[in-house]
Structures are given as structure tokens and as C-alpha cells.
């Protein structure tokens, strides 16, 4: 067994894992299968993949692509370099986030689910939180407003009806019971159409309680000053942090890895008093991100503040012109060049398509492409394999071309 394990050393896997593989192969009375078993195990490790799906924020592929090159050094995570005193992990990157969306203050936690949980626990535990019945939603991966509310210790107070909720419904609830805040939740990948009515943030802001808006996807500013050509048409009416705060929200919460284009994180931004109460709550300690995340998020926020959308991979990919994608498809020189429709993904701006270009091969080659090193993730439509170039970094074109040539259609 040990000899078999050692014969697999070239896989680069640590010896104890190779011993497991060798043991399984011998137990299956098939020692020759050890090589394939080792390869299968190696492919369970996290590794770079080429996203040729056309889904810009693909939850299975880690949502937004982020750079994480970082030397093995210490960093001033909780040290104030000006005074030499202990500083706040929340201060530096939080300040950049606040500055980028026009908030007084902001803090960063592990994800947006954590942001909503912390806001409710810190500001409303033991009290009521008013939520429209039309916004008491479930958002991908088990984020359910009533369940997050329950975990926070706050009490959900249902307002209005599933399709229509008016300001008067909130006013009546605030007069009737102990309401700590009104929570407005962007339904993200869910739409109610027809005979509907919702209360916009500026109307909610007239209530005598703070308004918290979970905008979800982290569009910082509807004017997109980081894009030379301004906001793309496909953004439609996706809520943005800056405008939601300007409309009177006391706090907004959003993800770091959706339209913000950063690492998995959650941001709580708004009134400095309320943000400070969140930061002081004991849960903040359990939900705080590590230096790797803060580092990657800082890079993204600095790019926003420089108005350099090209430095943010999500925005660079989302705003590449179709002509450029078509030129790249021609240079790749394999398969047919076809029109395609990319999508933002991760529940952001549901239902919109971004014109794109794909390379099409007849037949289903998804498994072959996924078995390539690095794995290429493609989609299959109408009996054809499509590799959408909008989500492929130009630096990966050569790898994609090589993989496509192995498909031989
Ligand atoms: C995506 C989303 C969440 C959950 O955010 P995560 O960062 O995935 O935890 C919560 N609320 C809304 C409105 C969302 O769109």
C-alpha cells in the first residue's frame, strides 16, 4: 500500500491522502484505479476554473472573481499606525466603504446574511421589526427573512399584504406596537407584478423609526461614476446604496461579492450612531471577517474611489463591448461564433440579459471541458456547447482555445 501511495507522488497530493487512495484501490481489488482515484481527489481541491457560462456572478464559482495575491506578512488589521494603540478592525475598510457610497460610517462582516442578522440583533432584539408581507422573502441558499429575524431575537411584525403594502399600514403598526425599526428587503430574484403597491424608501423615512434597507447586491451608486460610459441599460432600477441612503434610509446592508464585485463580505453602511451600535454588539465579534477578505475588499473599494471600473474584474467583464468579444472569438479560431446572452447572476438584476458572444461547438462537450486543466465550465443549449466570452478573462483565451481543440466536434 505504501509503495502504491508513493508511486502517486507526482500528483503533488500529501502522502496521507495518497495512502487513503491506495487503500481504497486495494480494497476495491483494483490497484490500477489508484491513479484515477488520486486525480479525482485532486479535483476536489479549490482551484482556478474558467467561467465560460456567461453568468457573471456564478454562486457555484464563488460569485465575483477577485484577486488575492498577498505576501505572507503581518498587516495593521487592529493597530492604529498613527498612535501605536490598538485600533478597530472595522475602521479602515469600513471608512472606504462609507466614503464610496456616501454613508457616515460602515462596517464589514462575513456576508450580507450576517449583516442583516447583526443589524436586527443590535438594534431590535426583543422588539418589533416592521416588514411588508411582500418582502418577507427567501433569497437563494436559505436566506429567509422570518428565520433571520427569529435568530436575531427581534419580532417580525407583518405589514400590509403580499401584493400591496401602503405607508398607512406601517404607520398603524408603529402606533400599535413596540417597533424598533422598519426593514425593507429587496426581493432580488423574485418579482410580484400586476396589482401591486410597495412603499419607497423616501416615504418609509417619514416614519418615527429608523429605516433599514437590505438592498442585497451592493450597487454602490446608480450613476456608476466608475464606468466611463455611465450606468449600463441592463442595471434598470436595481437599488443602489448611495441613492437609498440619500432617500432617507438610516442603514443599508449589501453583499461584497455581488454587483460590488469583491470578496464574500457583508457591508452595513449609514448613520454613524447605528453603525457603532452594530459594531459594539457581541455578535460583531463572531461575524468579523479576516485580513484576507479585508485586504481584497480594500483593493476593490480603492478602485471605486479612483473611479477605475476597469480595475474591478466584474465591471470590466460586464462592460466589455460585444465587438471586442467578437474579435477575441475570431482570434480563438475554433468553433462557430454566435450571439449569446450573459446574465449578472446571484439574484442581482433578475431577468436582464447582457448581449454577448459565445463560441459554439456541435454536441455536448461539457464533461471534456470540465476535465481540462484548468477546468472550463461551459453551458449546453439546443445540442450545442456554448462558451460565453463575457465571463472569460482575455488572459484565459489561449487556455480556452487549447481546451476547445481537444473536443474535436
Ligand atoms: C443575496 C442577498 C442576501 C444574502 O447575501 P449573502 O451575501 O449571500 O449572505 C440577503 N439579502 C438580499 C436582498 C440579497 O439579495
Relevant terms:
15 strands, alpha/beta, 34% helix, single chain, globular, 409 residues, 16 helices, binds pyridoxal-5'-phosphate, 7-stranded mixed beta sheet
Would you kindly provide a written description of the structure presented here, covering whatever features stand out?
The chain is an alpha/beta fold. Helices cover 34% and strands 17% of the residues. The protein contains 16 helices and 15 strands. It has helices at 2-6, 15-27, 34-42, 91-101, 112-124, 145-152, 167-176, 201-204, 241-246, 272-280, 282-286, 291-305, 313-319, 322-332, 366-371, 397-405; strands at 50-51, 105-109, 128-132, 138-139, 143-144, 155-159, 179-185, 211-216, 251-255, 266-270, 336-342, 354-362, 376-377, 379-381, 384-388. The protein has a seven-stranded mixed β-sheet with strand order 2-10-9-8-7-3-6, sandwiched between helices. Helix 2 crosses helix 3, helix 4 (91-101) runs parallel beside helix 12 (291-305) and helix 5 (112-124) crosses helix 6. The longest helix is centred in the last third of the chain and has 15 residues, at 291-305. The mean pLDDT is 94. Bound molecules: pyridoxal-5'-phosphate (PLP).
Amino acid at each position: 500500500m505504501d509503495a502504491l501511495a508513493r508511486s502517486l507522488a507526482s500528483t503533488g497530493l500529501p502522502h496521507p491522502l495518497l495512502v487513503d487512495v491506495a487503500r481504497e484501490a486495494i480494497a476495491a481489488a483494483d490497484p490500477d484505479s489508484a491513479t484515477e482515484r488520486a486525480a479525482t481527489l485532486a479535483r476536489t481541491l479549490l482551484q482556478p476554473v474558467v467561467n465560460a457560462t456567461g453568468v457573471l456572478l456564478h454562486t457555484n464559482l464563488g460569485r465575483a472573481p477577485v484577486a488575492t495575491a498577498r505576501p505572507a506578512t503581518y498587516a495593521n488589521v487592529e493597530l492604529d499606525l498613527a498612535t501605536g494603540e490598538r485600533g478597530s478592525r472595522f475602521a479602515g475598510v469600513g471608512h472606504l466603504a462609507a466614503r464610496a457610497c456616501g454613508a457616515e460610517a460602515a462596517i464589514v462582516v462575513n456576508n450580507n446574511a450576517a449583516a442583516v442578522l447583526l443589524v436586527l440583533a443590535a438594534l431590535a432584539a426583543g422588539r418589533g421589526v416592521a416588514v411588508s408581507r411582500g418582502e418577507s422573502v427567501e433569497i437563494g441558499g436559505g436566506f429567509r427573512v422570518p428565520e433571520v429575524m427569529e435568530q436575531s431575537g427581534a419580532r417580525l411584525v407583518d405589514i400590509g399584504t403580499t401584493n400591496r403594502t401602503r405607508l398607512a399600514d406601517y404607520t398603524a403598526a408603529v402606533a400599535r406596537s413596540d417597533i424598533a425599526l422598519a426593514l425593507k428587503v429587496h426581493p432580488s430574484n423574485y418579482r410580484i407584478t400586476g396589482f401591486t403597491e410597495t412603499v419607497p424608501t423616501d416615504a418609509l423615512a417619514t416614519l418615527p423609526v429608523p429605516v433599514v434597507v437590505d438592498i442585497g447586491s451592493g450597487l454602490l451608486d446608480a450613476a456608476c461614476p466608475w464606468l466611463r460610459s455611465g450606468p449600463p441599460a441592463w442595471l434598470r432600477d436595481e437599488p443602489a446604496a448611495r441613492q437609498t441612503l440619500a432617500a432617507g434610509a438610516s442603514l443599508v446592508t449589501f453583499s461584497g461579492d455581488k454587483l460590488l464585485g469583491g470578496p464574500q463580505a457583508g457591508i452595513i453602511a449609514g448613520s454613524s450612531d447605528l453603525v457603532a451600535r452594530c459594531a459594539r454588539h457581541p455578535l460583531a465579534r463572531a461575524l468579523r471577517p479576516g485580513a484576507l477578505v479585508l485586504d481584497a475588499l480594500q483593493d476593490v473599494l480603492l478602485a471605486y474611489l479612483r473611479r477605475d471600473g476597469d480595475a474591478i474584474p466584474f465591471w470590466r467583464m460586464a462592460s466589455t463591448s460585444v465587438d471586442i468579444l467578437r474579435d477575441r472569438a475570431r482570434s480563438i479560431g475554433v468553433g462557430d461564433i454566435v450571439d449569446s446572452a450573459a446574465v449578472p447572476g446571484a439574484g442581482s438584476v433578475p431577468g436582464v440579459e447582457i448581449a454577448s458572444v459565445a463560441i459554439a461547438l456541435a454536441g455536448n462537450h461539457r464533461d471534456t471541458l470540465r476535465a481540462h486543466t484548468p477546468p472550463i465550465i461551459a453551458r449546453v443549449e439546443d445540442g450545442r456547447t456554448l462558451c460565453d466570452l463575457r465571463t472569460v478573462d482575455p488572459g484565459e483565451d489561449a487556455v480556452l482555445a487549447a481546451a476547445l481543440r481537444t473536443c474535436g466536434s
